[in-house]
Each structure stands twice: as structure tokens, then as C-alpha cells.
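Incident log, structure service

09:12 report received: a user says their structure output differs between two submissions of the same chain.
09:20 pulled the input from the user's history:
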Amino acid sequence: MAWHTIQEAQQLTGKSRRTLYRDMAAGRLSWAPEGDSARRLETSELIRVYGALLPMAQPEAEKTAHSDTANGTQDTALILAELKALREEVAELRQAMRLIEHKPEPAQPDTPESVPPDKPAPWWRRPLFTRKG
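09:34 re-ran on a clean worker, output below:
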């Protein structure tokens, strides 16, 4: 649950500051220290001690858009067109990746038979000891 200051707890419970501090001192209301001299109270503790809480009036934020970002502007249409183009490009790239991932790899010359006879074998394929004789 949320933590509240003493002032917020007053608004939530409808109790006075003095009542809150008296209940904290008597041990009826649990609290936690915040900084050197502040206290904070948890919502569940306030409900346990005082019952249902009062609704806090929260000011509704004023919602205004910038004049350039109103719905239906030319910029919005450009952004949507660019978004569509980018989505198509991503789909094409994904398809290309699928084709690359499933493409069989060419055979690598790991066996001595795959080395042409006119070329000498690489140093790591040559025998360590040879008999001359």
C-alpha cells in the first residue's frame, strides 16, 4: 500500500493532527520515520485504526494539446505515412532474415579429398613425421 505524510493522513481520515500523534504515541497507530523529524503512515494502518477513508480531492490536470499536434493536422498524416513505410520495411527485413537463416551453407573443404590434388595440403593437414627413403 501507499505511504502518507501526516497532512495526507489528516485528509484521508478526517482526524486532527493531535489525534494522529496521540494514537502514534499510545501505540495504536504504527508509523515509520522519514528523515530526522518526519513520520509516514501506511494506508492499511489508517484503515485498520480509523476504518474507511475519506476520498481525497485530487485536482484534475488540465489537458491541453499543443497547437501543432492537434488531431487531423498535416504532420499527423506525415507521421502515419512514415510509420506505415517503416512497418513495411521491417516486414521485408524479417522476410529476408528468414530466407538467410534457412539457406543451406556451402560445403567447406574439411576433408583431404576436397583439396585439389595440384595444391599442397595446408600445414595443419600434413603428417607430422614423414619417412624418406
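09:41 both user submissions now match this output. Likely a transient worker issue. Closing.
09:42 reviewer note: The chain has a mean pLDDT of 81. The radius of gyration is 38 Å.
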